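Hi support team,

I've been running sequence recovery on a batch of backbones for a student project. Most finish fine, but this one hangs at about 90% for roughly twenty minutes before it completes. I'm not sure whether the input is malformed or the queue is just slow. I've pasted the structure tokens below so you can try to reproduce it. Let me know if you need the job ID as well.

Thanks,
M.K.
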């Protein structure tokens, strides 16, 4: 059976983790891309709004400037009078008016319309030109920032422009302010204040993503950053939704007097992510993907290595090698638990196999018969010797009793099952001790103590007889009359049968040597075969933790402790 399956599992997990990694990072890249798009959309919409506000602010400032200049003109009688005479009088009459006024002026300074306009140009940088139009004389005078003045007659085109209110010129937009005689309230003419339209180009360049259209109510464009749309279509769009549909864009629309400022951001460009940022997002995603793949491969290789150790251990167990030990790392995961459990299983399995194997040997093989045959000759010889000595001393009646006890013991050894109850084992022990009572009459006392609830505990047969026999052969003091042997049953860490006597005992060194032999299951031909035999049988059936242990009895003699685990 092929146990090398970790490579296949490694490939499966690598594929699964790679797919998960690709999906997760793709989702993150998509999330960051959408997030960046939304951020750019919000930023561009904010810029569009700020562009609209900046254009509206410039229109408002220009309108306010025109109003301020108009009001300032009425605050100075000399400058207002000069303007009214300039628009009403013929040139010679106007010049005479200026001389008269100058001579009458006590300050020695004449403030005419030229001086007023020059101060206005210096005060307001956005002011591009000023035009005076006399209604009575049908004459146009244009003043520029460089102090020059241009006079011409009014033409049809100019008048038509005034009628329509279309005051948009090349690179400029204007506001018309009528000039009245404050005495008669008669309109003498008008003042047209022109402002630079190039300022809108600067606003457009600053907020580069959005587009800007500035137009007047006559439908003339003051500024159009694209020249792609018809102003009439924009004017006909009666609401913002319709305007957004016409332009195909997000729209911010403001108005100041006769001028409208429309800033818009095309929807197809509104959330466009710059190529450099898109490349950066993809590069980060690829780097994270590579690092994640390296980490996954490292983790899976480490996992596969640990799995291979477990599989190798299983292969060795399948080959019959149970002393396998798989290193358990301190990762705290299930593989460590499996490794520790596997090691413990191998130890328990080894003990279990040995236990069952030796039990089968004890029960079914010739070894049990051989071991048992070592006991039977001694047992038979000693018993017959007791019968023989008793027969010499007594009549047939006593011999009959001894033969009965012997028959009961032999019958139990031959016909009973290998595992009997503790009550049966104690019964056979009593019968066996009765045989020795005939031999050593009045020389020893015996007692058997066992709580009633322990009588049905199962135990392998003939574990007490060799221990009792060992006492009568090696431990009994033949010249004394106060010998005793006591058998007691205790329930502690399984079950314990204690056989204690007040016989000859053993030295401390002899007890230590004997316990080492029993612990390591050493059977010496010259030693006590019976006790070693029982010890081996107990360990074979119940495990290495059980068997026989010898202790010195306080006051003299020995305590032999037989321990086993009822099943």
């Amino acid at each position: 059976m092929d146990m090398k399956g970790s490579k296949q599992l490694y490939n499966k997990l690598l594929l699964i983790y790679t797919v998960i990694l690709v999906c997760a990072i793709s989702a993150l890249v998509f999330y960051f891309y959408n997030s960046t798009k939304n951020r750019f959309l919000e930023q561009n919409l904010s810029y569009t709004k700020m562009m609209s506000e900046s254009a509206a602010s410039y229109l408002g400032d220009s309108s306010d400037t025109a109003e301020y200049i108009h009001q300032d003109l009425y605050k100075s009688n000399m400058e207002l009078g000069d303007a009214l005479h300039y628009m009403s009088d013929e040139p010679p009459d106007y010049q005479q008016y200026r001389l008269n006024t100058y001579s009458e002026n006590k300050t020695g300074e004449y403030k005419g319309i030229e001086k007023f306009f020059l101060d206005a140009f210096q005060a307001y940088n956005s002011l591009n030109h000023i035009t005076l139009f006399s209604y009575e004389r049908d004459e146009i005078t244009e003043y520029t920032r460089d102090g020059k003045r241009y006079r011409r007659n009014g033409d049809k085109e100019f008048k038509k422009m005034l009628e329509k209110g279309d005051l948009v010129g090349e690179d400029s937009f204007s506001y018309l302010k009528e000039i009245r005689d404050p005495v008669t309230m008669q309109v003498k003419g008008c003042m047209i204040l022109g402002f630079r339209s190039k300022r809108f180009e600067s606003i457009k360049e600053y907020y580069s993503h959005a587009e800007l259209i500035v137009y007047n109510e006559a439908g003339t464009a003051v500024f159009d950053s694209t020249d792609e749309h018809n102003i009439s279509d924009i004017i006909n769009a009666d609401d913002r939704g319709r305007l957004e549909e016409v332009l195909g864009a997000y729209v911010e629309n403001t108005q100041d007097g006769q001028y409208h400022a429309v800033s818009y951001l095309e929807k197809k460009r509104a959330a466009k992510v710059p190529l450099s940022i898109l490349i950066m997002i993809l590069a980060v995603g690829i780097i994270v993907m590579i690092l994640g793949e390296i980490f996954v491969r490292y983790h899976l290789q480490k996992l596969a290595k640990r799995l291979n150790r477990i599989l190798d251990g299983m292969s060795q167990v399948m080959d019959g090698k149970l002393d396998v030990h798989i290193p358990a790392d301190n990762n705290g995961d299930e593989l460590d638990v499996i490794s520790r459990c596997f090691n413990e299983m191998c130890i328990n399995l080894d003990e279990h196999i040995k236990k069952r194997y030796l039990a089968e040997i004890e029960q079914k093989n010739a070894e049990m018969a051989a071991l048992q045959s070592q006991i039977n000759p001694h047992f038979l010889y000693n018993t017959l010797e007791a019968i023989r000595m008793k027969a010499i001393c007594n009549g047939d009646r006593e011999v009959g009793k001894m033969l009965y006890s012997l028959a009961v013991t032999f019958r139990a050894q031959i016909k009973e099952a290998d595992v009997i109850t503790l009550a049966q084992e104690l019964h056979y022990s009593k019968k066996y001790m009765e045989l020795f009572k005939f031999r050593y009459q009045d020389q020893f006392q015996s007692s058997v103590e066992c709580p009633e609830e322990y009588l049905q505990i199962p135990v392998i047969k003939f574990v007490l007889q060799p221990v009792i026999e060992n006492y009568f052969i090696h431990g009994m003091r033949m010249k004394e009359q106060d010998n005793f042997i006591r058998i007691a049953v205790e329930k502690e860490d399984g079950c314990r049968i204690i056989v204690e006597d007040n016989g000859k005992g053993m030295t401390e060194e002899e007890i230590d040597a004997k316990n080492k032999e029993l612990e390591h299951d050493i059977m010496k031909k010259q030693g006590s075969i019976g006790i070693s035999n029982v010890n081996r049988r107990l360990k074979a059936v119940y495990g290495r933790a059980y068997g026989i242990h010898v202790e010195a009895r306080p006051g003299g003699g020995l305590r032999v402790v037989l321990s086993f685990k009822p099943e």
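--
Follow-up from support: It reproduced on our side and the slowdown came from queue contention, not your input. The mean pLDDT is 82. No action needed from you.
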